[in-house]
Write a structure and sequence with these properties.
Elements: E1 3-5, H1 7-10, H2 18-28, E2 33-36, H3 37-49, H4 55-66, E3 71-74, H5 78-90, H6 104-123, E4 127-129, H7 133-146, E5 155-156
Parallel strand pairs: 1-2, 1-4, 2-3, 4-5
Helix pairs in contact: 3-4, 3-6, 5-6, 5-7
Length: about 160
C-alpha cells in the first residue's frame, strides 16, 4: 500500500531514528515513503522557528526531502487544491472534540494544512498514516460526501517498528 506520512509521523524523522532507518530501507527497496507538500511546510516551519537550536536538523531534513530517491513529496496540485478548498468551505474550522495546542489562529492554520495533507493523499491515491486519526477520519468522511462513489481516503495508524 502506498502511504503518505502526516506531520505527526514525519516529525519523528531525525538522524539515527528508527523512522529514518525505515525510510532508508523502503527507499533502497524502491518503495519510498511519501510526504505531502503541506506536511513538509509544517515540519520546515517548526524547525526554522526553533532557530539555531534546530538549524542542523533543518539542513538534514531539507536534504532528505529534496532527494527524490529517499522521499516522494506529493504536490498540492490543482486537484488537491480544489478538494482542499471544497473541504474548507464545508468545514472551515477543526471539529470540536479533543483539546488542541496553540491559539485559535494557529489551530485554524493547522486545520487548513490538515485539509491540504488529506487532499494531497487522496488526489494522488495514497493512504494516510497519522497519529491524528480522529480528524483525518472526519476529513475522509467529508471527502466521501463531496465525491460519492469515488474511492475514499484510507486513514491508518503510524507505522510500528519491532
Amino acid at each position: 500500500m502506498s502511504v503518505v506520512w502526516d506531520t505527526t509521523v514525519a516529525s519523528r524523522l531525525y538522524p539515527g531514528a528508527v523512522h529514518e532507518r525505515h525510510v532508508l530501507e523502503r527507499a533502497a527497496g524502491g518503495d519510498p515513503i511519501a510526504l505531502a507538500a503541506p506536511g513538509v511546510l509544517e515540519i520546515s516551519y517548526g524547525l526554522a522557528r526553533a532557530g539555531d537550536k534546530h538549524a542542523a536538523a533543518l539542513r538534514w531534513f531539507t536534504r532528505l526531502v529534496t532527494s527524490a530517491l529517499v522521499l516522494v513529496t506529493l504536490p498540492l496540485d490543482a486537484t488537491a487544491a480544489i478538494l482542499a478548498g471544497r473541504l474548507r468551505a464545508v468545514q472551515p474550522a477543526p471539529p470540536t472534540g479533543a483539546p488542541r495546542r496553540g491559539s485559535k489562529p494557529e489551530q485554524r492554520a493547522g486545520w487548513v494544512l490538515d485539509l491540504q495533507i488529506a487532499a494531497c493523499a487522496w488526489s494522488h491515491g495514497y493512504a494516510l498514516a497519522t497519529d491524528n486519526r480522529r480528524d483525518f477520519e472526519f476529513i475522509a468522511h467529508l471527502i466521501g460526501e463531496l465525491y460519492p462513489g469515488a474511492s475514499t481516503l484510507e486513514v491508518v495508524g503510524p507505522p510500528t517498528f519491532e
